[in-house]
Design brief:
Elements lengths: L3 H8 L5 H45 L2 E13 L7 E12 L6 E2 L4 E2 L8 E2 L8 E6 L3 E2 L4 E6 L7 E2 L4 E7 L42 E7 L6 E6 L7 E4 L1
Antiparallel strand pairs: 1-2, 1-13, 2-10, 3-9, 4-5, 6-7, 6-11, 8-10, 11-12
């Protein structure tokens, strides 16, 4: 006769070694998948961080930096001293931290004549200079370049090379009455085929006490910002510190 105690024992269930092994394997598989996911995410994040760092270094390596003073030149846009204004601003730039070459092909050339700057027909310039003061913003102004010291005579500004950039701000749509009496400066009489535009007769010339800003924007790399204020009296040549 089966007692109640024996019946209860017969109904008790346990876990076999095989079931334990299956559960253990399942835990191991889940842990492995989780670990692989974490490692993959970490490697992806690390790769993205590395790309960001390299991109930042590339931007820095292809950047320009100023070398020396900013020089402003006075010209006469009319017939009296009241028509005096800054017609050209020059500054020297170099390649920052001996980085990648910067394409400095200019939209204009100059030959020290009264009609400077001369439109460089067919020139595909990639560096753009913008101008802003409290009266106006010009997104693409005329500029020329003069390589200084040792260079390989091309427009790629490489490590160790220096270039003098001259930005021209004279009126573009009227003729000077007598260029010979205006510091040898004449105004433009033809339209600009390159896209850059100087100050027109409807604009405001750069005068005494005016603050202005240039932004030199190369094809790649950081934008070089140059900000200066004119003195209270305009001289023929001024060092704007």
């Amino acid at each position: 006769m089966i007692t109640k105690e024996l019946a209860d024992r017969a109904q008790q269930r346990g876990i076999t070694g095989l079931e334990t092994a299956i559960i253990l394997i399942a835990f191991v598989v889940v842990a492995s998948v989780f670990a692989f996911t974490v490692l993959s995410t970490g490697m992806f994040a690390s790769e993205r961080s590395k790309e960001t760092v390299y991109a930042g270094l590339q931007e820095t390596k292809s950047s320009l930096e100023p070398r020396g003073s900013v020089i402003a030149f006075k010209g006469r846009a009319g017939t009296t001293t009241a028509d005096d204004s800054v017609y050209k601003v020059s500054f020297v730039v170099g390649n920052a931290i001996s980085g990648e070459p910067v394409d400095m092909t200019p939209p204009y050339t100059s030959d020290d004549s009264g009609s400077d700057p001369d439109i460089a027909s067919g020139s595909e310039y990639r560096t753009v200079i913008s101008y802003v003061d409290k009266y106006q913003y010009l997104s693409d102004v005329p500029w020329t370049i003069n390589l200084l010291g040792q260079s390989n005579s091309d427009y790629l500004l490489e490590a160790g090379e220096k270039a003098e950039i001259s930005v021209w701000l004279l009126l573009r749509d009227a003729a000077v009455p007598d260029p010979t009496s205006n510091n040898g400066v004449a105004r433009y009489t033809s339209a600009d085929v390159n896209g850059s535009s100087g100050i027109l007769t409807g604009g405001t010339l750069l005068n005494a006490n005016d603050q202005f800003t240039f932004e030199v924007k190369p094809e790649s790399g950081a934008v070089l910002t140059i900000e200066r204020t004119n003195p209270s009296r305009l001289d023929t040549i001024m060092d704007l510190r």
